[in-house]
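Reviewer comment 2.1 asked that we show a complete input and output for one of the modelled complexes. We chose the zinc ion case, as it is the one discussed in the main text.
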Amino acid sequence: MLLYNTLTRRRDEFVPIEEGKVKIYTCGPTVYHYAHIGNLRTYMMEDILDRYMRYLGYDVKRVMNITDVGHLTSDGDTGDDKMLKGAKREKKTVMEIAKFYTDAFFADCKKLNIRIPDVIEPATSCIDDFINVISSLIEKGYAYEAGGNIYFDTSKLEKYYLFNDFNEEDLEVGVRDGVEADSNKRNRADFVLWFTKSKFDDQELKWDSPWGIGYPGWHIECSCIAMKHLGEYVDIHCGGIDNAFPHHTNEIAQSEAYLGHKWCNWWMHVLHLNTNSGKMSKSSGEFLTVSLLESKGYDPLVYRFFCLQSHYRKSLVFSYENLDNAAISYKKLVARIVPLLKDTDKSVDAEALAALKKRFTDALDNDLNTSLAVTALYDVLKAQCNAATKLAAIADFDTVLQLDLIAAAQRVIDEEEKARAEKEAALAADPVARAIEEKIAARAAAKKAKNFAEADRIRDELAAEGIVLIDTAAGTTWKKAE
Ligand code: AMP
Ligand code: ZN
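Response of the prediction step:
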C-alpha cells in the first residue's frame, strides 16, 4: 500500500514497525464547541485509514486524545484558552463544557459512521505523565524555565522545521492577530510545555507541579498520550493539515528529544474543507455542523459520500449545491441496489468477487484514493455477474466506506412493502375503490400487451362511471370527476 508521508513528501510503501500490527495516533477535538463538518472531514478520512488497515488484516490500535485544557486560540501559544472561552460563552464550568462537547463529538461520529478509536484519553487525566516528561526534558537540557513558564528550547535540535521549509515569520501569527509576543522565549519557535504564570487569572483547571501551580501546553498532551498507550514508536500519526505546524512539529521535537530516537514513521494530513467564502469557522458565517445538515433534511451519510468522492490530500469546497448533487447520486446508487436484494439467486461467484475486490483494493492501496473506490462501487453495478456476487462485493467495500448502502436499499424495499400493505388495507375497506384499482390493473396489462383498444375501452368505461385516470411515470392514479 502506498501512503503519502508529509515527512518524506512522497508516497511510500507502507511497512509497519511490528509485523501485522499498526499503531495509529489521531489528534482529537478541542471540546469547547461543536465540531464543524470540516473537522469531521478529517476524522472521516482518518476513519477510512483505520478501517482499511483492518480490512487488510492488520491488528490496529488507534489512540485519540480529547483536548480539554491548554489549547489557546492561536497555536503559537498566544490568545485565550479555548476551553475557558467556551465556558464563559455558555456560563458553565470548563468540565461541563468538556463533557457536553465530547458527547456531542461522539454523537456526530456515530451519525457519520466514524469508528470510535480503541483508546480515548482526555488530557486532564494525564497530568502526571506530562509532568514526568517535562521534568525529563528539563534534565536533558531541552527545556527551560522563564517568567514562571516552562518552554521547549528549539535551538537544541539539529532540525526543527521538518515538514516544510517554514521560516520563523510563520510564528508571528500571534503578533499579526494583535496578541503580544511572548518575551520569555529564548527563540521564536520555542513553545510552552507548562504554564504557571497564567495570564488567565480565572483559569479554572490548575494542577500542582514542580514549577508551581499551572496547566500543560497543548502540544505535550498529544506526545504523552501517544507514548502512554502506543509506546515509544508510532506507525502513523494523523491530523488536519493545519496541525502540521506548529502542533505536529512541536510534538516531534519534544517526543524525539525525550525518547532519544525517531518516534513516528508516517504523518498523514487531511487537507481542509472550505466554503466558497474561504476558511470554515466556528465563530463567523454559518456554523456548519452535522445537526445543521440534518435540520435541512440531509442524511449525514450523504455528507460522508460527498467527502469520499474526493481525495483527502486535496482541499474540498463545501456548498449546498455540491451536497445536493451527492444526495442525488447516493439515492440513485441505493436505487440500483434494490433489485439486487430482490433477486432470489443467492450463489456468489468467488472468482468474479475477487476481481471486483481487486479494483477496490487497487484504489485504496493508491494513497487511499476513495474517489476511485467509489468508482469501483459503480463498476460492481455494471459488472457481468449475478446479483448475489454484486451484493457480496458491495457489502465487502462498505466495511470500509461505511455508506450503509445495503441497509438503505433494504429500507426502500421496506417502505415499498409498507405502502403496498397500507393500500391493500385501504382497498379491503372500500370495495368500490378496489373495483376501480382492478380495472386500472387490467388497463395496464392491456397496454403492456399493446392492446390499446382494450385499454381505451377500460378508461372510457371508468369515465362513464365518473372516474378520471391520471397517468404518471410512477403509475396510474384516479380521482372522481368534478
Ligand atoms: P480542533 O478541534 O480545532 O483541534 O480540530 C480538530 C481537527 O480538525 C484537527 O485535526 C484539525 O486539523 C482539523 N481541521 C480544522 N479545520 C479543518 C477544516 N476546515 N477542514 C478539515 N479539517 C480541519
Ligand atoms: Zn495533537
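Residues 171-178 have pLDDT under 50 and may be disordered. We note this here for comparison with the apo prediction described in Section 3.2.
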